[in-house]
Automatic annotation (TrEMBL):
Organism listed in the record: Deinandra increscens subsp. villosa
PROSITE patterns named in the record: S5A_REDUCTASE (PS50244)
Major subcellular site: membrane
Name of the featured protein: 3-oxo-5-alpha-steroid 4-dehydrogenase C-terminal domain-containing protein
GO terms for cellular component: membrane
Short name of one Pfam family: Steroid_dh
Amino acid sequence: MILPSIPLNFLFPPPPSLFVTTMSVIGISSLTNAGYMEIKGKHMQYSKFLNEGVAKKEDQMKLSSRTGMFLLYSPSFFVGLSSFLVFPDRDLRFVLLASALTIHFLKRVLEVLFLHKYSGSMALESTLIITSSYTFSTATMIYAQYLSRDFPTPSIDLQYVGVCLFVIGIIGNFYHHCILASLRKEGGKEYKIPQGGLFDLVICPHYLFEIFGYIGMSCISQTPYAFAFTVGTLFYLMGRSYATRDWYISKFGDKFPKDVKVLVPYVF
């Protein structure tokens, strides 16, 4: 009798919404599968993995990397921003969650425009898939939060823990993005082994801190959907990190430090 009650201590009940329930199942299953595909070598076609793991298509529609990345994040930013107008009956938890999502994607948009240095292309198909995932998940997370406004607050309130984790995540992610941006001159195409920060311990610390950010947003929200999407994101970024480490080893061979882990320092 104790175990079934544990989730009720820190989660709102699932809202009576077929849409949210369906999106929860789609989100966690599709992201987990995408992470598995990354490990198996079938990659989302962007960044260093463009034309990796798939048959090269000469007629494949592509966008510049900067344009593709801008399209990835900007709709979700506008979804977060517009939620303050669409949902007038807001409590503090809703405001914190919507603000965190808006800040998260605003940061990504500004990084695309002013920080990152791009040299390649991005497949239109991958752009549309990832954009849809970000946009629908952001809208669903906000909507699920709105539907939970009249439910009793979970006895274990994690919203302020969530704010702290979100701030740690967004700062850590930005810091390591700055390190990556410093490795390449504008217009350059050469890849280098990242060093500094947690890059000396794991190959994708920016993903690690992105996971911290999503865990933070889940703790702010405390809805089943938010946690389901975060679990799916965890599995996808684990798979992408695993593939990234393999890519660096294949490119740099013995020059790549073998003690650099995939995602979690000293562990994995």
